[in-house]
Amino acid sequence: MSASALTLDPAAQDLLFREARTANTFTDEPVTEERIQAVYDLIKYGPTAFNLSSLRITLIRTPEARERLLPHMAEGNRAKTATAPLVALLATDHEFHEELPQLVPHAPGLKDEYFADRAVREQVSVLNGALQAAYFLVGVRAAGLAAGPMTGYDAEGIRKEFLDGDHEPLMVVNIGNPGPDAWFPRLPRLSYDEVVTTL
Predict the structure, then answer these.
(1) Residue 89, Ramachandran bin (φ over 0: left; ψ between -120 and 50: alpha; else beta)
(2) Predicted TM-score (pTM) above 0.90
(3) Which residues share a beta bridge with 169?
(4) How many other CB atoms sit within 10 Å of the CB of residue 199?
(5) For residue 128, which of 100, 92, 156 has the smallest C-alpha distance?
(6) pLDDT level of residue 190 (50, 70, 90 thresholds)
């Protein structure tokens, strides 16, 4: 299928998907608060079930916070996490239902009717938090930055260090402008016919 079959400009398609890569090295150019807020203000419009919006973001900026994070990262992820201009810890909030009266004002009973049970909330929040995490990665790319998402870490260690029992880590994302030799070779992708079944 040609890129021209899509409404989105081909250059934007490249920026968001075809040419976008996971960076493993970064320059020291800072990622400003204004820029990362612009990313969030874009991706918050991505759909979630009931608009529940369970993603929570912890920005690791200070050297002290970075030193607290690094021991919990897998060994192969520590060097790039140590040098990325910004690191975002993406988590999902199992107590997202407390925000539903604000997020879904037309359904005031939603919080207690559907989400009173913690096990239900945990299942729903992980799925929808992961959706929002994917939007976040695309949003970082839309800002002209490279995102390096990682799940190689001690989740329980990160939870204890930065979060609490109501928040579950989803991924750690290095963010910045790519540095020298930033890319691994691109791996193959499955074709349309390998993935899509039409009934």
Answers:
(1) beta
(2) yes
(3) 91
(4) 2
(5) 92
(6) very high
